[in-house]
Amino acid sequence: MKIFERNTKKLSRRDFLKTALGGGVAITGLAGISTNKNVSAIPQGNVDLSTANHEDSHNDHGSPGTVGQVNHDANGFDPPSLLYEWDYGEVSQLPNGQTLREYHIAAVDKEIEIAPGVFFPAWTYNGRVPGPSLRCVEGDRIRIKFINAGSHPHTIHFHGIHPASMDGVPGVGAGVINPGEETIYEFDAFPFGCHLYHCHANPLKRHIHKGLYGAFVIDPDPARHQGEDAQIARQRNHLFPEVNNYNEMVMVMNGFDTNFDGDNEVYAANTIAFAYMKEPIKIQRDQTQRLYLINITEFDPINSFHVHANFFDYYDHGTTFQPTLKTVDTIMQCQAQRGILEFSFKDFEPGLYMFHAHQSEFAELGWMGFFEVVE
Ligand SMILES: [Cu+2]
Fold first, then answer.
1. Mean pLDDT over residues 167-183, rounded?
2. What CA–CA distances, in Å, run from 176 to 129, 146, 157, 167, 209?
3. How many angstroms does the Cα of residue 200 sit away from the middle of ligand 1?
């Protein structure tokens, strides 16, 4: 990687972004956020973070974030698309009336820019990290045509219920899919919830952290549930109008070991460090928010999500209709743990509300953003 051709001494991960970006771009630390003149008034109004960063780029106690722009066009994906885009598959009906959803996923090697000027030689599903957010309905037949167009053997292992032969692990069923080969994973989608998929080739930690993972959401089918549960199922199911009362987002918490020392140097929700700080996520004050949150961070035992000035209900794994945690502002997830967060800023003052990992170091290294609440 170009950065480390210049820097032969071992960098601590705390130094990484600053040192690596010391040329044309710069990053400032988080240390002074509570006293920084530009961001101390965050809840009361809009802050131009790019301006704040430029003014403070000489100052180690300035506002968090990166200076410069990631080339989202070159990446082929941008922070809003990662947040809002779903892949529902090609939909048809089987003779027995069951809905069939066919998805096409190719593993592709691709260098991606994860912070301004910081490039990572990723292994991707469909050129994105995270891969496409697959969505279906409980009981649908799922058929995933997987082509390995990458340079290493890969698989797709889905979290969910399926036959052993469809598990996407080495030595079982199709096993590892070598470069140039393809296979089909097929199963019925159960249980409803917020799940994920990832490569399960060995060494597992390397295959996962290189970028081979994505969201897999199974909506509950109201016809399979009774009473109040059926009503809630309609609010979660993308085929019913009730879901439009919610602003649905996907965040995959991830990290990147850019110098291959077994530690992450960059953290994010959806890959791009500080992406939602540079471009806060605009949300309507009166609309309920639903966040599908997944942790796939490698090398660190847990990650977390914390929102400022508000609380949320949490559905661990998304497999229940009633919250498994009520009125919390922080949750932690081990790797592959995931869940659904629901919250609202109704009657709140419009403005910027921060969210971030409450492992402060992760936040400093990119896993931090803003909701911009608008009327
Ligand atoms: Cu792999």
1. 97
2. 21, 11, 10, 11, 17
3. 6
